[in-house]
Specification:
- It is built from six helices and seven strands; from the N terminus they run E-H-H-H-H-E-E-E-H-E-H-E-E.
- Helices cover 30% and strands 30% of the residues.
- By secondary structure, the protein is α+β, with helices and mostly antiparallel strands.
- Strands 1-2-3-4-5-7-6 form a seven-stranded mixed sheet.
Length: 165
């Protein structure tokens, strides 16, 4: 990750800016505008959720370039969101947010982390130690056989996950 980028806790007053980031990140994968409109509510970040759940942002030069949200559970936590601004893809932002998510879940007592992944993000998560444990049917217009990979990072937490705060 570039030296000028940092990971910090998300603030409730950033919900609108994070919603814009999530929509921009999802659009990067070429989904049609009509489909993005259908997903708008699901991609809307709520201030109350940021206030009540572990959420992190990546910030560079005063600009939000990434975001992740965790939901605590037993025995596994869930990586609910992980989005990187398209201008920052390939710069280590996603890896840094993933490391933060894993450290947070591990330190919170989780025995693993589940991920309901966008198909375009599966390779990234697999490179971060996840394994596919199933799929969920997720057809959209023009892609009737589309599925969302169901992923899990479990058991021994990867040693490389440590994030200085």
């Amino acid at each position: 990750m570039p030296a000028s980028a940092r990971i910090r806790r998300a603030r409730p007053d950033e919900a609108d800016a994070l919603t814009v980031l999530c929509l921009r990140a999802k659009a990067h994968w070429g989904y049609p505008a009509e489909q993005l409109a259908r997903w708008h509510d699901a991609l809307t970040v709520r201030a109350d959720v940021l206030a009540s759940h572990p959420a992190w942002v990546a910030e560079r030069d005063g600009r939000l370039v990434g975001y992740c949200l965790l939901l605590a559970g037993e025995p596994h936590w869930c990586l609910e969101d992980l989005f990187v601004d398209p201008s920052a893809i390939g710069q280590g932002i996603g890896r840094a947010l993933m490391a933060q998510a894993l450290v947070t879940a591990r330190d919170g007592g989780a025995r693993g982390l589940t991920i309901d992944a966008d198909p375009h993000a599966e390779a990234f998560y697999l490179s971060q130690g996840a394994r596919r444990v199933g799929t969920c049917a997720a057809p959209i217009p023009g892609e009737p056989t589309r599925v969302r990979p169901q992923l899990l990072i479990d058991g021994a937490w990867p040693r490389q996950w440590s994030v200085p705060l």
